[in-house]
Give the backbone structure.
Amino acid sequence: MSEPPVSEPQGSGARARFGTDRSPWNLLLLVPLLMLVTPLWNHDEPRLFGLPMFYWSQFLFVPLGVVCVGLVVRAANRRERAATERAAEGNEGKR
């Protein structure tokens, strides 16, 4: 027979894993999506090293996107670490 499903414990840990994350840092994830709006970048001028604006702007968005995603991941890890520490401190007080 099958075992009953294991329920997640109620508390900040379960909410942090399965709840919504409405951090303002997540707005930075929209910046790399700007490269998909091609009418903004589909121009010949200004040229940089002989490349039309469309090409050099796309090359510019690659490191910019990496930086934005890195900042969001770092902020999320910080929030998760702080929530874990608070939960650990709360559990120590109950002993």
Observations:
- The longest helix spans residues 53-94.
